[in-house]
Amino acid sequence: MESFRPELVLVSAGFDSRNGDPLGRFLLSDADFRDLTMFMAEIAHKYAAGRLISVLEGGYDLNGLSHAVSAMCIRLHWPTDCLLSGGGSNMNWDRVEGNWKQVMGKAREKWGKLSNDDIEVVGGRRDQLVGRIQERYGIARDVARSRPMNGLKP
């Protein structure tokens, strides 16, 4: 690395080597992916002014894939819920609803087309939020559900 000194670190992030993947059949854990990501981030920091691009290229156990990619996000200091698209099963919507007064400012920032009335009506309920996003942005319900809900965790 010293002699090469890359200006950019590009990672082809395949997660089919994760334990439980039906194709890879390797034994890497989420902790291993965190460690590998930290190694890449250290190289990027030392040689490439922190410039690192990671491109997803494999992983066929969707549950395991989400955990491994989340582990990578944690190491890159992205929000820990960066991949909970649609506020997936790991997102505690009861907690969001119970803390809606604290969370609604974040929702207002994230979805600028939602009015104050929309935000009030949602009240932290996922189905209401998805419906309002669908209406205001003119998108299909499944697309609205898949929109990342990062930044909403109380």
Write out the strand line-up for the largest beta sheet, numbering strands in chain order: 1-2
User: What is the N-to-C succession of helices and strands?
Assistant: EHEHHHHHH
Radius of gyration: 19 Å
Shape: elongated
Count of individual helical segments = 7
What is the arithmetic mean of pLDDT? 78
The biggest sheet, with number of strands, parallel, antiparallel or mixed sense and barrel status, is: 2 strands, parallel
- Structural class category: mainly alpha
Number of strands: 2
Describe the structure.
The chain is mostly helical and about 150 residues long. About 50% of the residues lie in helices and about 10% in strands. The protein contains 7 helices and 2 strands; from the N terminus they run βαβαααααα. A two-stranded parallel sheet has the order 1-2. β1, α1 and β2 form a beta-alpha-beta unit. α1 runs parallel beside α2. The longest helix has 18 residues. The chain starts with 8 loop residues before the first strand and ends in an 8-residue tail after the last helix. The relative contact order is 0.14.
Could you provide a short overview of the structure?
The chain is mainly α and 154 residues long. The chain has helices at residues 30-47, 62-75, 93-98, 100-110, 116-122, 126-137, 141-146; strands at residues 9-14, 52-58. It is built from seven helices and two strands; from the N terminus they run E-H-E-H-H-H-H-H-H.
